[in-house]
Design goal:
The protein is mostly beta strands. Helix content is 0%, strand content 48%. Strands 86, 88, 89, 90, 92, 93 and 94 form a 7-stranded mixed beta sheet that branches. Strands 39, 41, 42, 44, 47 and 49 form a 6-stranded antiparallel beta sheet that branches. Strands 58, 60, 61, 64, 65 and 66 form a 6-stranded mixed beta sheet that branches.
Length: 1420
């Protein structure tokens, strides 16, 4: 692994704020600021976690270096308060996988799960990697756990079995596995699916307390798996099938179940991509139809960027063209795109979120990329959303309870804005029990048997502040009684009945069940009913809001009915309800008419005048009750101490001493325009200031008061509208009218008289409804006359010495000094004792636009708007008759105007160019004159002119750049009536320039003109075919000068590549800005006749047709007399005196001094133009060898050419001649060696020769072999082209077996000299089969010799013809002796043998003969 350098950088120091987007969120505007992570040179996947437990987010990244797609890295960056350091963690370099923090061993620090592909080759298929690295005090050590390692893999942690430790999922190409963590040991529980190019995510979508799984990617379909106690079941969800997939759980609609984001590329390409949100409706996933940007190979995160309580969405991926990051703001389930970055934010499966700068907001990380040879580092989009502090959106109304009444709930989010992570709290409750039903839903329940009023503070807090309201809770004392009729069958005390019908079942207590009694009546068969039940008389004088209830069962017969009624006088009854049909249940009645009544009695009447015909009927009454609130008849205590604490021009702040009442309702303040304040006057209470609900609140500020006098009184009112008496009124004087300015000095505003001094008096009068403090009078002046009150022109207090009392007003008069002439503003400001501020001016408004002015003129007239305009570089004119002019401005009238101009352009005003008077016309502005005059200049060029003006005060001024008298700064006229001129031609010395020696020739000139030369008009043309005219294909070519190049002197040039040597005409043309057109040439006319030339001769003299020919390998000469030569060609001319030669006489490879150049006498004149010049030189040598020789010649330009293969000077490439007068050296020791059936190896001592050609071997089966016989040479064996040294061998092949051949050897050279070995040699090829045994062996004795004869062996056992190499003859003394070395007599080459010295005992001997061919012998 390469050595890494520690990289430290402060993220915030890199931050360049680039506001990316805004959203129209109710509470906040989502914004991001972008910073490049220049310290991280990787296209990386990231995970965020605090591995060192220091409270800030660290990074782990895997990916490839931006500078090399083959270089992978895995790094851990430690975050030290925004400074990130690569800790050199020594982790496996990975790409195309995942990295996740997780404490798998539960030791309190984060470990690492890494997966991906490793290796440094372009293709990483098959190189899958999955590994856990344990965090050992900040160092990461690989564990020995074994996992499947598919390529293109994905992995993640999750505690799917709820046993408190992290389990693992791994999936990739063609395999997947879930590993259960059993105390640090991992067990593979099986595979759910295969697939790759995808991701998975854990989440409890069915809210059963364990983690379920969603997966998408190439291979199987996308699927959601329900976790049933550790077993995973595919629920068959209808979600899209995608590859390059991303899935992410998130509850976007805040319905407390997980919804699903999914994005990827469709498997069938129709449509090409999907990006969807599926809503979880009771564990059924429905396409939400939310319109999102379609991306694939995405990475996504749900997070609340704006902290508004719902999940926003960020995801990145490809759209088929580039990689894009998008952010959508979620506003109550409606998604609005607020950010889209393109080109490059390099987001391919590499997006991460986290609080990277510890500001409480979620930021976004995106990976880098490499494009167009430019490295784009990863980026962090810092979340710069401004989260506002909570605020009150509406007042919390008081809550009222009856003692021991039911709880009430209040949704606090309805009363506060909740930006960011808003937390609600409460305090100051004593008798009110509060319970959070959710983060903002509060249940309010008074304690048992308590009554009264309590004020509870409700606070909404986020990281940016808090807001508070008071919740007022009133609990009313209640009274009640109940009668359950459980008197063991007796009528309760003071209850009575009246029996008027014929039934024998009047109202009576009846046992309903167990010990529960109720009152019941009914009509028997044949009987009638007219039965009454009366309650006791109740005194309800002290109660209100009376509620009466009872439990009833009513079943009439026929037209019978029942009534429930009450009486207040024991005489007349008011019916509350009439019963005509079957009824059961509890009946409850709010009867306002019973409030505070001293005598109340109730009656139940069951009546039917018709006899019952046997129908079932009854009326049952049980559990009668009366409930009421104890009346509050006592008014709150009087409010004392009402006082005015402060006031403004339209408001009054008051305070008082608190009242007291158990059921305090509110404070009421009444506002009167006289001192007789009553409750019919204007009311200020809780409708204007909700704090007046609180008895402890003792201040308020009454707003909206008009200018005038007011009396204000206060009273306290309880919730029963009992009110205390009005307090003593307090007097308030309101002054809402600002002071009034008048009588400006100077007067006649806005056009006062002109002044000729800058020290002036200003002043005015100021009056007010109230008293004005002189210390509150200020002024300011526009001293510099720029139409603004600058910071150097602040408000200044008016000196008391400048103020006098004028009765109803104050008068101001003071002296000020201005710094400029013109119409100059001044302004006064006055503040009365109530803070009402007024300003002087035409409209009495603050600001200079309506202010009073002074008009000051102490300066001479001012010239402007020159004609011609754009001085000092006006446009060029194509005429010498020019209109000059200007605008003259003065504060007052201009008395006289004069002008003069430099007609001859000599740079001075000559006597004949004196001042001339001008009578101007006057436009509508009386101080602004337009002057124009037609003048005639005598020359082209830049010529000056000048105006002079005098105002009525005698102030004189001059026109010009510095408004000074004299020509040095004067305005000018630029005239040009002539065409551009071309000078300084390139090449120079026209029309006879120096000959160029290269085809690349620069042509050019300098263009001169009075005005600007149009660069686009500069063109050239060249007579490239040298036919004396410019043909259509030789049209004008633009020179492509840069815009703005040159003005009146413009050097131009162009490098031209000419096709060949010769003389070429060329021409330039150019226009000036006025369209004057000029041409180059001797006479500056259009056309080739006078044009400049380029003359080119690039080639030195050329040598060809060498003698001897066939260079570099000419024929060898067998004579010491040789001729060398060549033919010289030059397109321009030859200097014949320059033709020379030299040769390497001593053959040492260099031209020695004694081998210097020698002249060749030639017949042509000194110069020969464009001709072929043949040259020859005869040489006489004295030794054989290879000689180099060289010629040289020059043209009139001094360009020298050399002969040779490459026409270069020097011996290396020179031509040669070769001499050989000697035959090859003699050959010795020619003999045969290795012999086979079809070949013979021949060997000899090497020959030698200067130009050795090769060896030839002629062979025949006849001893008379000659050069006419077949030949074996270098065409058969290339080694025979080399003379060699020592012994030389060749194998002659293709011979017949057992055949005798004869060979002659010849050495030859290229000249034709031959050397032959003196005699032929012979060799016989062998046979691999045995020879036939010799036949017909006979013995005879003649002349004292034993003579053996036998037949020649001519065949081998296969019938091949052979010639035996030799015969072996053996002797023994018995017929079956063994042929061995001891019995061998001799070897012979023929089938005949004479033996002496054995005649005497020949009759006792036996002979055997064996034939040999090579190493093979026959049988005996």
């Amino acid at each position: 692994m390469k050595t890494k350098l520690s990289c430290r950088v402060t993220l915030m120091s890199l931050l360049f704020l680039a506001l990316l987007t805004l959203s129209s969120n109710l509470f906040s505007h989502i914004t991001f600021a972008e910073t490049e992570m220049t310290f991280m040179d990787m296209d990386a996947q990231m995970d965020v976690g605090d591995y060192d437990n220091d409270g800030d987010d660290d990074f782990v990244v895997i990916g490839q270096l931006l500078s090399s797609t083959l270089q992978r890295e895995t790094r851990v960056y430690r975050n030290d308060n925004g400074v990130f350091t690569d800790i050199q963690a020594n982790l496996e370099p990975l790409v195309d996988g995942a990295c996740h923090w997780g404490d798998f061993d539960n030791d309190g620090d984060l470990d690492l799960l890494l997966s991906g592909n490793y290796g440094t080759t372009q293709s990483t298929y098959g190189n899958g990697f999955v590994k856990i690295y344990i965090n050992n005090n900040g160092s990461f050590v690989p564990t020995t756990h074994s996992f499947i390692q598919p390529f293109h893999n994905f992995s993640d942690w999750a505690d799917y079995d709820n046993d408190g430790d992290l389990d693992i999922i791994v999936f990739g190409a063609f395999s997947s596995a879930i590993y259960r963590n059993d105390g640090g040991s991992f067990t593979n529980i099986g595979s759910l699916f295969d697939g790759w190019h995808g991701t998975s995510d854990w989440g409890d979508f069915d809210n059963d307390g364990d983690l379920d799984l969603v997966k998408a990617g190439y291979g199987p379909t996308s699927a959601i798996y329900r976790n049933d106690n550790g077993s995973f079941v595919n629920i068959g969800a209808s979600i899209v099938n995608v590859e390059g997939a991303c899935v992410k759980w998130g509850d976007y609609d805040n319905d407390n179940d997980l919804d699903l984001f999914i994005s990827g590329s469709s498997l069938d390409g129709q449509p090409p991509r999907y990006t969807k949100i599926y809503r979880n409706d009771n564990n059924v996933f429905v396409d939400s139809g939310i319109n999102l940007l379609l991306l694939w190979s995405a990475s996504a995160e749900w997070c609340d960027f704006d902290q508004d309580g719902d999940l926003d969405l960020a995801y990145s991926g490809g759209d088929g063209i580039s990689y894009i990051l998008v952010v959508y703001e979620n506003s109550g389930g409606s998604f609005t795109q607020i950010l889209q970055t393109t080109g490059g934010i390099g987001c391919k499966q590499k997006l991460e979120v986290g609080d990277f700068n510890n500001d409480g907001l979620t930021d976004i990380y995106t990976s880098g990329y490499f494009k167009n040879q430019i490295i784009h580092p990863p980026k962090i989009l810092f979340n710069t959303t401004v989260i506002a502090a909570p605020s009150v959106t509406q007042t919390i109304n008081p809550m009222n309870f009856n003692m021991n009444g039911l709880a009430q709930d209040i949704e606090l989010a309805d009363y506060f804005s909740s930006p960011g992570s808003t937390v609600f709290t409460y305090f100051n409750n004593q008798h009110i029990e509060l319970e959070w039903l959710s983060s903002s839903l509060l249940r309010v329940q008074p304690t048992a048997d308590w009554f009264g009023t309590e004020y509870i503070t409700i606070r909404a807090t986020n990281s940016h502040g808090y807001a508070e309201q008071t919740l007022k809770v009133t609990v009313y004392e209640t009274w009640g009684l109940t009668e359950d009729f459980n008197q063991a069958g007796a009528l309760p005390a003071n209850w009575t009945t009246q029996h008027s019908g014929t039934t024998d079942f009047p109202w009576q207590p009846v046992l309903i069940e167990s010990e529960d009694y109720a009152m019941k009546t009914m009509a028997n068969t044949g009987r009638t009913a007219n039965e009454r039940l009366f309650s006791p008389t109740y005194n309800l004088s002290n109660y209100k809001d009376i509620v009466v209830s009872f439990d009833t069962g009513f079943l009439p017969y026929g037209t019978g009915s029942g009534t429930f009624a009450y009486t207040l006088n024991n005489v007349t009854y008011t019916v509350v309800e009439t019963f005509n049909a079957a009824t059961s249940g509890v009946k409850t009645y709010n009867i306002p008419n019973l409030d505070a009544k001293p005598s109340v009695k109730f009656r139940w009447l069951y009546a039917n005048s018709s006899a019952n015909t046997g129908q079932d009927n009854y009326w049952i009454v049980d559990d009668f009750s009366i409930f009421g609130i104890v009346r509050d008849t006592q008014a709150p205590s009087a409010v004392n101490g009402l006082a005015l604490t402060s006031q403004t021009s339209n408001s009054a702040s008051l305070s008082w001493q608190a009242s007291y009442d158990l059921y305090f309702g509110k404070y009421e303040l009444y506002i009167s325009t006289d001192d007789q304040v009553s409750t019919t006057d204007q009311l200020w209470s809780v409708g204007q200031d909700p704090a007046l609900y609180n008895v402890g609140n003792t201040t308020t500020t009454i707003t909206g008061l008009a200018t005038g006098d007011f009396w204000i009184a206060i009273r306290a009112v309880d919730q029963s509208n009992n009110a205390s008496a009005l307090s003593e009124p307090v007097f308030v004087h309101i002054d809402g009218a600002a002071p009034v300015f008048s009588n400006p000095i100077p007067d006649l505003q806005p056009e006062p008289l002109w002044l000729n001094t800058r020290s002036v008096n200003i002043g005015c009068s100021v009056s007010d409804y109230s008293t004005i403090n002189p210390d509150n009078l200020f002024y300011r002046i526009d001293a510099n006359g720029n139409g603004l009150y600058d910071s150097s022109e602040p408000w200044i207090a008016v000196p008391l010495s400048a103020i006098s009392n004028g009765g109803d007003a104050l008068n101001i008069l003071l002296e000020v000094v201005y710094d400029a002439d013109g119409i100059l503003a001044f302004e006064f400001k006055a503040i009365d004792q109530y803070g009402n501020t007024a300003y002087s001016g035409q409209s009495l408004q603050e600001g200079i636009s309506d202010d009073w002015v002074l008009r000051i003129d102490t300066l001479a007239p001012v010239f402007s708007s020159s004609l011609p305009i754009n001085q000092p570089e006006p446009d060029w004119l194509q005429t010498q008759s020019v209109q000059i002019g200007c605008t003259i401005e003065d504060m007052n009238l201009i008395q006289s105007i004069e002008y003069r101009f430099d007609s001859n352009g000599n740079g001075s005003y000559d006597p004949e160019e004196a001042w001339q008077s001008l009578t101007p016309s006057r436009n509508m502005n009386r101080n602004l004159l337009m002057v124009e005059v037609q003048v005639e200049f005598a020359v082209d060029g830049v010529c000056s002119f000048e105006f002079k003006a005098t105002d009525i005060l005698g102030n004189v001024s001059y026109s010009g750049l510095n408004s000074q008298e004299g020509i040095q700064d004067d305005w000018v006229v630029r005239m040009d009536t002539t065409a551009p001129i071309f000078i300084d031609p390139i090449p120079a010395n026209q029309p006879n320039p120096v000959w160029a020696t290269l085809l690349n020739v620069q042509i050019g000139a300098t263009i001169y003109d009075h005005n600007d030369i149009d660069p686009s008009s500069v063109m050239y043309r060249i007579d490239l075919n040298r036919n004396g005219s410019y043909d259509p294909e030789e049209e004008w070519t633009p020179l492509n000068l840069r815009s703005g190049a040159g003005r009146n002197s413009l050097p131009i040039n162009a490098m031209i590549v000419f096709p060949e040597d010769g003389v070429y005409a060329f021409e330039f043309k150019a226009e000036d800005s006025l369209g004057n057109l000029g041409y180059s040439g001797l006479n500056a006319t259009n056309g080739i006749e006078d044009d400049w030339f380029v003359m080119i001769d690039t080639n030195p003299p050329f040598f060809s047709l060498p003698i001897p020919g066939n260079q570099p390998l000419p024929l060898w000469s067998n004579n010491y007399a040789v001729t060398i030569g060549a033919t010289i060609l030059d397109s321009l001319a030859l200097d014949m005196s320059s033709v020379q030669y030299r040769y390497d006489q001593n053959q040492n490879g260099v031209y020695d001094p004694e081998e210097n150049w020698q002249n060749i006498p030639l017949q042509q004149g000194r110069m020969s133009r464009s001709v072929l010049v043949p040259i020859e030189v005869d040489l006489l040598l004295s030794s054989d060898g290879i000689y180099k020789f060289e010629f040289r010649a020059s043209d009139p330009n001094g360009v020298t050419g050399y002969s040779g293969i490459s026409q270069l000077q020097g011996i290396d490439d020179d031509w040669i001649f070769r001499i050989d007068t000697v035959a090859p050296a003699e050959i010795a020791n020619f003999f045969a060696q290795e012999i086979t059936d079809t070949s013979v190896q021949l060997t000899w001592t090497a020959s030698a020769d200067l130009n050795f050609l090769g060896y030839r071997i002629h062979y025949s089966t006849s001893p008379e072999v000659s050069i006419a016989d077949p030949c074996w040479d270098w065409n058969n064996d290339p080694n025979l082209e080399i003379a060699g040294s020592g012994l030389v061998s060749t194998v002659v092949s293709g011979l017949n077996p057992t055949t005798r051949y004869y060979f002659i050897l010849i050495a030859t050279d290229e000249v034709g000299w031959v050397t032959q070995f003196p005699q032929a040699i012979t060799a016989m090829t062998t046979s691999s089969a045995k020879p036939m045994a010799p036949a017909n062996l006979s013995i005879s004795i003649e002349n004292g010799l034993v003579i053996l004869n036998w037949d020649d062996v001519t065949q081998d056992v296969l019938g091949n013809p052979i010639v035996p190499s030799y015969y072996e003859v053996f002797v023994g003394d018995y017929p079956d002796f063994i042929c061995n070395f001891d019995t061998l007599i001799c070897t012979v080459n023929e089938s005949y043998l004479e033996l002496a010295e054995i005649v005497d005992y020949a009759d006792r001997l036996f002979f055997k003969v064996i034939a040999h061919v090579g190493m093979i012998r026959s049988t005996k």
